[in-house]
Amino acid sequence: MADVGGSGAATPVGEMPEFVHLRVHSAYSLLEGALPLKKILAKAAGDSQPAIAIADTNNLFVALEFSQKAMDEGLQPIIGCQVSIDMEDGGEGEKRGPQQALAKLPSIVLLAATEQGYERLVDLVSRAYLGGEGNHAVHIAASWLDEIGTEGMIALTGSLTGPVDMALKEGHAPQALSRLLALKRLFGDRLYIELQRHGTYDRRHEQKMIAMAYEHEIPLVATNEAFFPTRDDYDAHDALMA
Predict the structure, then answer these.
(1) How far from 157 is each of 5, 48, 110, CA to CA, in Å?
(2) Crossing angle between the packed helical segments 63-72 and 37-46, to the nearest 10 degrees
(3) Average pLDDT, the chain
């Protein structure tokens, strides 16, 4: 698997910088996404994207097939996963219990930047399935990141469904900062504050996140959580989610 990273070459004046989707959901994001891998790769190649990341929800089912077929299309595959996370700080929904009791768990996106990072991501996702009992929701705990290690992985804060954003939106600014600093301690300069401008876009909230990023020297990344290829496919996706 190729390391995550750009060429470092400057973008010529007048040309658009290369754009890479960092959290595409395939049909393996069960009851969320319906995009076949073939369509994802064709769309990315058609848009001349140099790379693409698939970050399905709490699973890596598509990882092997994605890696092989993306390279066949001349795309750099970035293997990721959107993982539900218990920050273990007393936040709402963070006590282990039945599936419905954990419905409000936040999520972050983890991207494998190296082979070692991929192995750690596999360990985390496997433990997420094996660590609970009965009908407990699939999720990781923040302490597991300390135990397994994070070298070789990049973390995105999860935007509006992430632990930092959710705490801030609920009026818990000290908890939001504490969570951000906990993630920074775990990932260092491999942590990115994620911004999205779709759905329930809130400019005031975005400005608060940007201010935190500047104050604590954490880079920003703009993402789009892609579940379908074009706006014409929205109705089909909406029917899936109903």
Answers:
(1) 19, 27, 9
(2) 30
(3) 84
Amino acid at 153: M
**Structure tokens that stand for 41 in this block:** 């790769």
C-alpha–C-alpha distance, residues 41 and 163, integer Å:
30
Classified as helix, coil or strand, 195 is strand
CATH code given to domain 37-90+104-241: 3.20.20.140
Has residue 240 got a pLDDT over 60? no
Residue 187: phi and psi, rounded to 5, are: -110, -15
- Predicted model pTM: 0.85
CA distance 59 to 237: 20
Nearest to residue 22, comparing CAs of 230, 221, 216?
A: 221
* Spans of all domains in the chain: 37-90+104-241
